[in-house]
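## retry 2 of 3
previous attempt timed out at serialization; input unchanged, resubmitting
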Amino acid sequence: MSIDPAMPELDTESQPYVLSAFVMLCRMFRSFSDASSGARLTADDLTLFNNQLLRIPTLTEHHNDLQKADLSVTQQWLRLMFWKLAINKVIMTANTNDDIRSVFFPISLAKDLLTNISAMSIDTLEAHGPGMELKLFEVTNSVADMITLNPRQTTSALEIGPQDILVHLANIIGRFRGGNKTLLPLLQSRLSGIGLDSLILPRITDVTYDSPGL
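## retry succeeded, writing output
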């Protein structure tokens, strides 16, 4: 998939508050397309793309909760996708920091994601359908990969650790109604494999109806 260079410029003047979130999503995917189109990727490419995405605001007062959820999750998901694209092409560091050039980058990314969506309701996230669920799964599964790679990674007692992040994200996915039923068993298996016995409780909706005449 590639962006047509002949595409017209987006009209941001007409209904700016309605279109602004869509325009920002277009900018995100445009940045991803531009950054990933080259034959070679360098550490500078990683940093440049990461900075471009982070400069796109996702939680402005002009956006409603649905738009904020879409922008926030998509931004972090695209950062992760580009990191995955580059990890076999760029020499990564083993530092456990938030640098996108670190092999442990998904941990800090997932922490950023949780910070952004912590105040959002499950209904807001769920409204975006299976695409949102799959984006969250990609992040969650990547955190599980990092814990498997470095099971002894330690954090301050005051910090949220990788295992906490993993369980939190897995339980958010577990609350999606009627979603991809293959994801929960996969996540439960990942948790068990890491030594976490937290049960992911699926969200149950009561669809029974009592007739007023009974």
